[in-house]
Each structure stands twice: as C-alpha cells, then as structure tokens.
Amino acid sequence: MQPSKKIFLSKLVIIGCFVFPISAFGQWQMVSTEDTLFSYRDVTITSDSTVFVCGSTYNSGGVILKSVDFGMTWTTYTFPHACMDISFPTNSVGYAIVLPSSVYKTIDGGNTWSLIVDTLNINKPRRDILFINADTGFVSAQDNWASFYRTTDGGISWQQIVDSSLGSGLQLIGGRYIVFNDGNLYVTGGGFFLKSSNFGDNWMPYLNNSIYNTNFTVAAQNDTIWMAGQGANGSPHYNYGIISRSTDGGINWSVLQFQEFNSFLDIEMVNSLRGYLVGDFYDSIFAFLKTINGGISWSPQQWIGNNPYGFGLKAIHCLNDSTCFAVGSNATIFRITNSGGQVNAIPELTNESLVFFPNPIIDKLNIETTNNELSEFFLYDMTSRKILQQQFINSLTLNVKQLAKGIYIYEVRNKNGLCKKGKVVKD
Prior knowledge:
Layout: E1 28-30, E2 38-45, E3 51-57, E4 62-67, E5 75-79, E6 83-87, E7 94-98, E8 102-106, E9 114-117, E10 127-131, E11 137-142, E12 146-151, E13 159-160, E14 177-181, E15 184-189, E16 192-196, E17 204-207, E18 213-221, E19 224-231, E20 241-246, E21 254-258, E22 264-269, E23 275-279, E24 288-291, E25 299-300, E26 303-304, E27 313-318, E28 324-328, E29 332-336, E30 354-357, E31 364-369, E32 374-380, E33 386-393, E34 395-399, E35 406-414, E36 417-426
Parallel strand pairs: 1-26
Antiparallel strand pairs: 1-29, 2-3, 3-4, 4-5, 6-7, 7-8, 8-9, 10-11, 11-12, 12-13, 14-15, 15-16, 16-17, 18-19, 19-20, 20-21, 22-23, 23-24, 24-25, 27-28, 28-29, 30-31, 31-34, 32-33, 32-35, 35-36
C-alpha cells in the first residue's frame, strides 16, 4: 500500500488544461477518461485546495487519489478493499472508512495512511464518516440495520451510540449520511432523519411526513434542512428523484419531484441560497442541478466531457460557491471553478400522444408517437449506462431478446425536449 510518484494517471486525462487557464472554465468539465475498472464514491477538498477522491477498483480493491494542482495531476494510494468515504477535518489530518469497516488515518496530508481500527462491526454497504475536528468523528451505517460510532481521541477508541429514549427501530442510531452544522449533528436514511445537539449523546427524530421518501443525503444551514433521495412509495413520486426542504428545523416540509433523475445521491449547500445536487441518472441535459434561491427551485447546468461508458454521480464537494468537484462510476471526475456557468431551463414534458409497450417486455419493445417528427429513444440500465439509442419517426420496434433481465430506464425525446420517461422491466 505505497503511494505512487506524481504522474498523469493512465485513467485520468486532463481536458484543455494547457490551453485555457483554470479560471476560464465556464461549466462542469470532466477531467478524467471514464473507465469501467474504477468507481469513485466520495470527494473532499481541504482548505488549502487539495482534492481527495475515494473509491474502488474492479477487483474490490480501494484507492484514494490526491491532487494539489486542482486535478491536473494525481497521486494514488491503494487499499486492500474498497474505500467508501473520506473526511479531512484539517489540511493534514484525514480519515477514510474502508470495507468491511476498517478506519485509516493520515497525519501528513494523505501522503501515507495507517490502519487505526480493523473493524467497527459494521456489515452494511451504506456508510459515512465525518470528523468535525482532528479528534472528534463519527461513522454511521444503515441498511435494515443501523449503527453509529463516535471517537473523541482521534480514532484510537470508538463508542457505539445507542439512545434508549427513542422509539423502537431508532434506538440503534444510524443512517446513510452524516452532516454537522451550527453545532448540530444530523443523520438520515429511509424516510427519517435524526438530530443531536450534544455530539451524539441524545437524539431527536424528525419524520418527513410530506412524502414517503428514501433519503440518501442531507444538508443543513441553521434551521433550513434539505434532504434528497428517491420517492419510494406511491404515485406521483414513485421511483423519481425527490428533494424535501424544511425551513423550521424539520417540522414542516415542501417537496420537489424530478422525473429526469432516478434518485439523488448527494447534496452540497454552499450557503443558505446556493447549492448543488447530483444523482445516479443523467442524460445529455441532466447531470448537475443548482439552486440559487435556497432550494425553492433547481435548474440543470451545462457539462462537457467524454462519456463512452455513461456515469452516475455519487458525491460532490465544494470549497466555495465557485469551486467544486463531483465524482462517480466509471472513473468519472468533474470540476468547476466559476460556479458552473449559467443555470438552464428544464425541458417540459410535451403533450404529444406516445405509447410504450409492452411492460414488462420479453422479446420486443414498441414505441409509437403521433408527432410525425424525428424522435430519439434511449434505454439505460440502473447504473446509468446507456444500453440503446435509436432515432425514429412515428414508430419503433426493437429486438431486446438478448437483453438481461432486470429494470431499465427509458426516455423519448424530440426537438422540443423530453417527451416521456419511465421504467421498464425485462422478463
């Protein structure tokens, strides 16, 4: 597990770095060549502008990338298992959680890493690590079984937090995402989130009663809280990206639905007005959403880059409103240096007649429309990889007999934008 020399990684190709100054980039720009051998799960930027990317390799090994020149070159550090999440409370001290539940620590700014905890008895894939200073940190996990650990001595010893005052099912604290803001600690997962004002000793549950929601991520600025994920139960939100917003500390919620996204996986609120959302589905328009009014509305931003394998974005982190990195599957790394440029209007669903059948599909898939204009059909798997793309006028029949069984996302577009989108099952 030795770090490499500083090199241009064979899996990372910089786009235009030596032609334009960094400050000239006007939108999200991919600074990597996608590769199915890598999947990046987390990204963080320290106050001295050092960027760290945490992820896994095709053979279940782990990797942390480090860049001190804003993504132009990277050094790597490898682990025996996948790196799931990373946290840097200072420029020199950082922590990473590595499967199955090991904790590694660096005290020299990520040049070397040491194993400090072999196992925290966490056996679930969804987990997060957050240190609020060099000594005090938390690890959380949740997926049918919850667990939450705290250390106050820099990771030497850990205490599992259990709050017996909570109702059944919540006493074992845990969630998929941790955030700390204004002295309060939050964890979220499923349709709930918990809040602690004493660094995890006691917790208060808040239920997002406005929607049955699977929340994957949370952000907070004072009494305003944003949660994002996927609508989990019932029409009209089922299987669509969902954003919930509360301005009274979690008592009341308003909800936004985005059919253009399957689910949102990370939210970054830079301040009370400006923030970003990324998720596990994208197309030629939707990859990044931005708000400039505190989450009342969200709009897509432009992005450029090569995407031969497709990608799903899993994490985003911003140094400030102008400077952000986002990472995801197939070795995807994006960056912006000037807020990502303009926000764009969201294409509206058209009212044209469109029929998609059958669903579930077995051998053939049929699409019929009455607009008498050129349309385009897209089919993606649940990892956001594009499976099919076909232009047609009025009708289209595709042979999908060789398509693997499972759930797919389909989309039909014409010159006016998005016509129809949904999920289809292949039997």
